[in-house]
User: Fold this.
Amino acid sequence: MVQTVSPNELIELLATPGIDVIDVRDHDEWATGHIDGARLVPLEVLRADPDAVLSRTAPIVFICGKGIRSMTAAKLAERFGYERIYNLEGGTKGWSAAGLSLVIDAQAVAA
Assistant:
């Protein structure tokens, strides 16, 4: 079952050892800012081969810009039998609206 979490609930989840935070946006969106500790796995890549990019043992949090694509990713993972799946409500926009910061890679700024 996919659980939706608020930004504040995600802060607590981030303390979970081994948690896998996956941002399913595209590279350009990622460059505008992402949650610290997340890794980029665009939705198309995830759809192509979930088992190549997801861990069967770690809790997984999916993130996108508004929470819609990440819910699609979470439901896909659920269909493939993954457990402990979370979706960030409101995505990175909700995260920022809650007063939490996003990381912008120096490479993205220089480009």
Observations:
- Residues 31 and 105 are 7 Å apart (CA to CA).
- DSSP finds seven helices and five strands in the chain.
- The chain has one domain: 2-110.
